[in-house]
Amino acid sequence: MNCAPPTRLTAFLCWYPKKVDLIAANFTITDERAKEVNFSVPYFATGQKFIAHKGVLKTPEDIKKLRIGADKGTVQEITLREHYPTAKVISYDDTPLAFVALRNGNVQAITQDDAKLVGLLGNLPAAQKADFEISPFSITKEYQGVGIPKGEDRLTATVNDTLIKLEKDGDAVKIYDRWFGPETKTAQPRGDFKIGPLDQQPKA
């Protein structure tokens, strides 16, 4: 298996020349994207949150007056621009670059799905980590799935069967706990999410 860098632009540029068969790179399921690709059943549930210096973000109302870094072309950037038009949104090529901007004072917060933000903070030395916090609220409910070329229904069914089997066998929980369990630096409860059809998942 050959793996391409998981940036969104690279993924889509490689997609159409048939250089990749699957996209599994923090790929949020949306109606717009579903017009272009098949999606597997959701394998991960998340929500859009923020990292800021402690005390900066207490409620969603605070978002409206801030300079916020977001990954270029992501669902998070689009949501922020549509629902918080008074916020100053600065686009970056990826989340680590946005986080550097936050640490340098070029933006007052950055936004991504909560799992990615937990990972960013988890990799900081304790002294630096103490300066930041993840917002106590999320502004969306999002589900991530595997992207599959349009029309590849057999491949879609195979991916779905594999993911659902992981859930039924208990392997999905083991994989989750390996990366987000209570003994990790990126601890985050899985909650009641289970791999299964999108229409059976809780809405925002």
UniProtKB/TrEMBL annotation:
A Pfam family hit: SBP_bac_3
GO biological process: amino acid transport
Key words of the record: Signal, Transport
Residue ranges constituting the Solute-binding protein family 3/N-terminal domain according to the UniProt record: 1-183
One cellular component (GO) term of this entry: extracellular region
Metal-binding listed as a keyword: no
Region of interest: Disordered: 185-204
Transmembrane segments: none
InterPro entries per the UniProt record, alphabetical: Bact_solute-bind_prot3 (IPR051455), Solute-binding_3/MltF_N (IPR001638)
Family of this protein: Belongs to the bacterial solute-binding protein 3 family.
Name of the protein in question: Sulfate starvation-induced protein 7
Organism: Serratia fonticola
Gene field: fliY_1
